[in-house]
Amino acid sequence: MPFTANRQFKAHPRLLASARDMHYTAADGHRVLDGTSGLWCVNAGHGRQPIVDAISRQAAHLDYAPSFQLGHEDSFRAASEVADLMPAGLDRVFFTNSGSESVDTALKIALAYHRARGEGQRTRLIGRERGYHGVGFGGISVGGIAPNRKAFSGVLLPGVDHLPHTHDLARNAWSRGQPAWGGEPFADALESLVALHDASTIAAVIVEPLAGSTGVLVPPKGYLERLRAITAKYGILLIFDEVITGFGRLGAATGSEFFGVTPDLITLAKGISNAAVPAGAVAVRRSVHDTIIEASAAGIEFFHGYTYSAHPMATAAVRATLGIYRDEGLFDRAKALSAAFEEAAHALKGRRHVIDVRNLGLVAGIELTPRPGAPGARAAEAFGKCFDQGVLVRYTGDILAVSPPLIVGEDQIGQIFETLARVLDTVE
Ligand SMILES: Cc1ncc(COP(=O)(O)O)c(C=O)c1O
């Protein structure tokens, strides 16, 4: 099982049987409020009829179309609809099947772009400590999670460096929204890497605008703006990994829109199809796309692609999902709920074990003091007890994360954080 303590799970399985709107039903019949949108992906809620209908119609109509040298109309419609939600200028779209594939695709596009401009020596990639970019060799190389890298350390991509992460509990604990401290100093670490390696060797910088998987790390004020300024100054491409922040999580179509900072490439997955069918995409600045296409001799311009790129079922799910976001105004709804969500999250201040609460849009992180000698055990116990008491949360190390579907009601927000408060009182 992926990222699972297999022996523990098999001794005490937690099985889900069905899902509808805000709830899962477990195999033992108890209902579980989805406080995490599955794995940050079911942004429109579960079992949405327009998506179910679109997928089943498509399966009967065109089950599959090869994606090499052939296409199907829905893939171009889906690409245009995705592009409409991206910041101005990022209107070329390459479909993948997952966040990991989107990341590896974006890194390859960055390398192909510099090669097309006659700067093929720009091959260095810069990620960030505590970054999560999926599990491909590209993604774990630029990613900054030690256990994901350790076993594969001998074969990680060469020529990768990392920025420091931006988490500073001593200065920024209990921040509501973006932390006040650290924007410029954390981003200026990129100047040091440029001085060390020389800009002429660096292809791209990849960061999550808000890091989700490693414990909800909200970017300090001014940080992303500064990264943008430095990358632009040196001709380095900036990639935002928006696999989590894309499609409404922060109360805007993208994190880029929310923060008002436009990168050169955006990686997408998860909420793009409401997770009903695996899907992902990379949105690319048109000038980057055109450079690659125009510099190539006749024939294939970009040697990359998946058997299931723009799979008809995926493009059907993407189009139906984006239709729901639009028709129900779900990104605005997330924005409108953010203040109540922030209040409810910060009400955990003062509860047992809680050393920080942080939040942005419909994401909150609750950091606990680790149990001596057993890091992660405390949050794992809280996760299990919440599940038994009918609320799904997530944990990474000793950080609990909450990120409900954008259809969540205020009473359900209350239920999530009240359950957490009750559970934390009983956790050793
Ligand atoms: C920012 C980010 N990038 C990439 C991924 C990998 O996505 P997938 O699991 O679909 O490969 C994730 C998954 O959580 C993610 O949060």
Describe the structure.
This protein is α/β, with parallel strands linked by helices. It folds into two domains: 6-47 and 329-426, Alpha-Beta Complex (Aspartate Aminotransferase, domain 1); 52-327, Type I PLP-dependent aspartate aminotransferase-like (Major domain) (Aspartate Aminotransferase, domain 2, 3-Layer(aba) Sandwich), CATH 3.40.640. It is 40% helix and 16% strand. It is built from 16 helices and 15 strands. It has helices at residues 6-11, 37-40, 49-61, 73-85, 99-116, 137-142, 146-150, 169-172, 183-197, 223-233, 255-259, 286-295, 312-327, 330-346, 377-388, 410-426, and strands spanning 16-20, 23-26, 31-34, 92-96, 124-128, 160-163, 202-207, 237-241, 265-268, 280-284, 354-360, 363-368, 391-392, 394-396, 399-402. The strands form three sheets. Strands 4-10-9-8-7-5-6 form a seven-stranded mixed beta sheet, sandwiched between helices. Helix 5 packs across helix 12, helix 9 (183-197) runs parallel beside helix 10 (223-233) and helix 14 runs parallel beside helix 16. It is globular. The model has no long low-confidence stretch (mean pLDDT 98). The site of pyridoxal-5'-phosphate has 14 residues, from helix 5. Keywords: Aminotransferase, Pyridoxal phosphate, Transferase. One of its GO terms (molecular function) is transaminase activity. Its cofactor is pyridoxal 5'-phosphate. Belongs to the class-III pyridoxal-phosphate-dependent aminotransferase family. It comes from Castellaniella denitrificans.
